[in-house]
Design brief:
about 70 residues; alpha+beta; three-stranded antiparallel β-sheet; binds zinc ion
């Protein structure tokens, strides 16, 4: 599975959706859990509206992926 095939879903264990405030936290989580450098991608504008940060109630603008 390519890293581009991810789905925008909360609770998937090897990725986090996050707002600008929590992107660093998400990166730290991935590094702690998997000891790999995560891939950070921006969520497209139409998906931002329906995606919430894994750490707070804000709209997510990044996906941090293992
Ligand atoms: Zn957040």
């Amino acid at each position: 599975m390519s890293s581009r095939d991810f789905e925008l879903k909360k609770g998937v264990d090897n990725m986090y959706s996050c707002c600008a405030e929590h992107v660093e936290l998400a990166i730290d989580q991935i590094v702690d859990e998997y000891e790999v450098a995560p891939v950070v991608e921006m969520i497209s504008e139409e998906n931002q509206l329906s995606t919430t940060c894994s750490f707070c109630e804000n709209e997510a603008i990044y996906i941090v992926n293992k």
